[in-house]
Request: fold
Amino acid sequence: MGLLGPQQPRGEQAIATKMSSRRNRISDEEINELISKLQSLLPESRRRNIGRASASKLLKETCSYIKSLHREVDDLSDRLSDLIATMDSNSPQAEIIRSLLRS
Amino acid sequence: MLLGLQLAGVSSKGMTIQERKSAVKLSADVAMAGARGSTNWTRALIANLSKQERNKAILRCILGKDYEKLTKPCQYHSWKNPRSKQILRRSVIRVCSRKRNVLRAPATSVLAKVLVKKRTQVLKSLLPGGESLYGFYLLDETLDYVISLRVQVDLMQRLLKASETSNLG
Reply:
């Protein structure tokens, strides 16, 4: 892919080769693939199908996505614990949940 | 996760709202980490949860022998990271600055570097165990963590739905 173009890192990669074994070098293709995968996970990317975003945009989107996922887990924890609390201990529903918890 | 809920004694009436919620969250997190297996972030997550003594017993019980595996110190590939971070940053910034006016490119890339650095710090603070990671490995862990978080959310939503439906029925 012509995305990365000619680059100085080649010099750094040469140093990397000397310092470590070949198979441990991280290739540009691997990096590209990782970035694409990450971008495809982000909600905004899926909606509008933007071309390749900049590094800072990608990081920003990722951070806000993780934060929103954390918030959602928090909210779901609230609701689940409320639900468990309000269940009447003698009702058939409570019995179902209890048997689920036991299994 | 259900085992976690049971062990944390969620159905006990003696619990306060906050305690119950923490128990639910704990179960969810342990389930997520346990299901994923050994990665940098799962270890960090378990380590953080283990800091509280009362959680340790629950963790041991749910994870079984996996608990020992996940808490054993592990050597991570930190030596190749500084370089990969630069390669990564350079490759993505290059894509970005290519689209812009060539004359503005130097200033743009300085700003981009600052933004990238700042946002990388935020990401590290969000990811369990992220502080010690760089570049490629940071993104790799992030990808993994995001996927697991989504599964966790999905699981909790289903559990909620199932409970709600059984309540109505």
Observations:
- Chain B touches chain A through 61 residues (CB under 8 Å).
- The CA atoms of residues 5 and 15 of chain B lie 13 Å apart.
- The mean pLDDT of chain B is 72.
